[in-house]
Amino acid sequence: MNFYAKELKLNLLPPNKLYCDFNYWSSLFTQDMSILWEKGHCVPLKNLPSEVSDMIFPYLLLALSDYKILNKKTLNGIGLDNLLNLWFDKYSLNRNGYFQLTNLLEKI
Question: Fewer CB atoms inside 10 A, N or C side of the chain?
Fold first, then answer.
């Protein structure tokens, strides 16, 4: 029997920024959420109080979902749960409404 190995190319490194289109996804992005993002600016997600991370978590899922849809060819077969497990501790909040790699903050 002949077995052919298919070359597997996956890039599981997290992107520098994950964007979530808040205008599209949510009409609930109120002044309270804006204040939360402002106060949480540059705070790693893993260091947020649980009440805050519970409020931010849906937006992270939406951002990951958008990223996965935009990169469906390279992320085929990788679930949101896997991306979340791989990347959660690598991001911090940015007051401009996106999640930024924490190690980028250390370089600034």
Answer: N
